[in-house]
Write a structure and sequence with these properties.
Mean pLDDT: 94
Distance between the termini: 18 Å
Number of helices: 5
Order of helices and strands: EHHEHEHEEH
Radius of gyration: 13 Å
Strand content: 15-25%
Low-confidence stretches: none
Shape: globular
Number of strands: 5
Length: about 120
């Protein structure tokens, strides 16, 4: 995914803050995709069936994968979800959020716009 701006999110399908972030993100999903931002969410727990059902039940539009043994999650964090990383075109983390705030999606959109306008 070099040369792309990537929004990487770690979450738990049982986390209320993750659901709130995802609902905000889903509402702005077209803005991210129209800019060319690739969004990938990684579930740090749950099995594939549970997480797939969660994604379908909530009509989330972004790519979701399961890391139920936390191999990937443990490389980036030890606790607290949701955790979002905006990664620039060179593969460097440019902006992060931890836990949930209603300001996170607007901040991520603003920062992604700045990265893509360079």
């Amino acid at each position: 995914m070099r040369d792309e701006v990537v929004l990487l999110i770690f979450f738990s399908h049982t986390c209320p803050d993750c659901k709130a972030l995802f609902n905000d993100l889903n509402a702005s999903y077209e803005e991210f995709t129209d800019m060319g931002v690739r969004t990938i969410a990684i579930a740090r727990d749950g099995d594939v069936e549970e997480v797939t059902q969660y994604v379908e039940d909530n009509s989330y539009k972004f790519d979701v994968v399961v890391d139920n043994n936390r191999k990937i999650y443990n490389l980036y964090a030890t606790m607290y979800v949701p955790r979002a990383y905006l990664i620039n075109q060179q593969g460097v983390v440019d902006f992060t959020t931890v836990e949930y705030s209603a300001s996170h999606v607007p901040q991520l959109l603003e920062r992604a716009t700045a990265l893509l306008s360079k």
